[in-house]
Amino acid sequence: MTKPTVRRVAVGGAKGCPVLDGYDPLDQDTVDDPSEWMATARSEAPVFYVPDHDEWVVTRYADCERILMDPKTFSSKDTIAIQPPPPEVAGDLPNGFALQTNVGNMDPPEHVRLRQIIQPAFARKQALLKADQIRALTNRTLDGFIDRGRADLLLEYCQPIPVRVMSSILGIPEAEAPQFYAWAVELVQLFGNPMIEHNEYVRLARGQIEFEKRVRTLIDERRKNPGDDNDFITNLLNAKSEGGEPRLSEREIVGTVTGAIFAGSDTSASALGLILHGLLEDRRLWEELLEDRELVEVAIEEGLRVRNPARAPRRTAMRDVEIGGVVIPKGSAVRVHLWSADHDESVFPNPERFAPHRPNAREHITFGRGPHFCPGANLARVEIRAGVETLLDRLPSLRLVAGHKLRAAPNKIVPALIDGLVVEWDERG
Ligand code: HEM
C-alpha cells in the first residue's frame, strides 16, 4: 500500500478540512488492517473528514476519551439504528427497530434511568458467578472436536461460546443459540454497514422482525413463570417505581434484550478469535503463557488493546466544536475510532506489538469510557479468559495452519471476524 496522503477540502462553510485521500472504512483491506491509514491520520490529520460517508473520524487516544466523557457535546441519540426500516417491512415495524430503544442509542436523562435499571444484571458479581459455568461450556465446546486434531476454531469454538453464554443468561434454550447468533450478526450488519444493497437490507430487516417476535415470547414466558433473583429478564420485568408501576416499557425490555445479544455475541467471539490468533501467530507468546499462567490476565488485556475487535462508535456533534485542531460543525456525525486510540504511540509505544508485559496494557479504551462504558466488559473478560485457558490446559500443542488469512466482515461498528483461525494440534494435545 502506498502511504496515504492528506488533502484539504471545504466542508459546508469551513475550508481546509483534512481528508485522507482514498480512505474507505468498508474497504476489505482497511477492515482487515487499518494500521497504515490510522498511523498517518494520528500523525498528520488526527481528525479528518470522510466525504463519501459524510462523517468525521477522530483517531487520537486523548481526543477519543474527551468525546466519550462529554455526552452533552457529543450525543449518542439515534447513533446505532441509523436507517429507518425499509418501506417493504415498515408496516410490521411501525415504531422502527426495537434496538432504537436501547441504552446505546440514548442520552441523559433517559440513558441514566435505563442504565441504572439494567446495571445490576450486568454487574461484575454476575460475571464472576458465571465463571464456572462458562469454563464448563468452553470445555464442552472443545469436547465436540478435540479428537479431530484440526478445526476452524472461529466457527467451532469462538463464535458459539459467547452466544451460548448470553442464551443461558437470558434463558434461551441452547438449541436456539445458533439462530440467535445469526440474528445478532445480521443486526450488526444492518446497522454497521450502510452500503449494503437494498434487497439485502430488506432481508435483514425481515430477520429482525422474527428476532423481535421471539424475544417478545421469551418475555411473555418469563412474565408467566418468573425466574430467580439472577434471571436477567425477570429483573427487567420486576423493576418497579415507588408506586409499583413498571419502570421499563415492553419496548424498552425488547430493546435491552436484543441489544444485549447484539452487543454481547460478535464482540466477544471476535475478541477471543483475534487474541488466540495473536498468541499463535507469534507462538513464543503462546509458549510464554504455557510456562507462566499468571501472565494470562494481562496478556488478555494487551490482546484486547492490540486486537481490538470493535472499531468506531458514532456520536453527533451538538454544537460547532474544536477537536484536534479542527472545527467539527454542529450536527456532524463523528466516529470515535477506538481501534486507532488503542494504537496511539503516545500512550502505547511500539503499538503494533503484542506485548504481554506492557505496563499500561489495562489502559486500553476497547470497552469505551464514560457513561456508555461497556456494561458487559467483565463478562467478556471472563469468557475470553475461559476460552484461552481451556485451550492452554488441553491443547498446549495448538498451532495455526498456514494459508488462512485473517478476515473480517466490512463494518463500521464491529467488523466480525469471518476467517483465518484454522488450527491443528498433536493427538496428545
Ligand atoms: C470483547 C467484547 C466487547 C467489546 C470490545 C465491547 C465494546 C463496547 C464498547 C466500546 C461500548 C461503548 C460504545 C459507545 O460508547 O457508544 C460498549 C457498550 C455496550 N456493551 Fe459492550 N463490548 C463487549 C462485550 C459486551 C458484552 C458481552 C455485552 C453484554 C453482556 C455487552 C453489552 C454492551 C451494552 C448493552 C452496551 C451499551 C451501554 C450503554 O450505551 O450505556 N458488551 N461495548
Please summarize what this structure is.
This protein is of the alpha+beta class and 429 residues long. It contains 18 helices and 14 strands. 46% of the residues lie in helices and 12% in strands.
- Determine the structural class based on helices, strands and strand pairing: alpha+beta
Main sheet summary: 5 strands, mixed
Number of helices: 18
- Outline the low-pLDDT stretches: none
Envelope shape: globular
Sequence of strands across the biggest β-sheet: 3-4-10-7-5
Query: What is the typical, i.e. mean, pLDDT?
Result: 93
Span between N and C termini? Answer: 40 Å
Relative strand content: 5-15%
Number of strands: 14
Query: Which ligands appear in the coordinates?
Result: protoporphyrin IX containing FE
Provide keyphrases for this structure:
five-stranded mixed beta sheet; binds protoporphyrin IX containing FE; 18 helices; 46% helix; 429 residues
Task: Describe the fold and architecture.
This protein is of the alpha+beta class and 429 residues long. The protein is built from 18 helices and 14 strands. The protein has a 5-stranded mixed β-sheet with strand order 3-4-10-7-5, with helices on one face. The protein has a 3-stranded antiparallel β-sheet with strand order 6-14-11. β3 (47-50) and β4 (55-58) form a beta hairpin. α9 crosses α10. The protein is globular and about 65 Å long. The two termini are 40 Å apart. The mean pLDDT is 93. Residues 68, 76, 103-104, 115, 259-260, 263-264, 267-268, 271, 309-310, 313, 338, 366-368, 372, 374-376, 379-380 line the site of protoporphyrin IX containing FE.
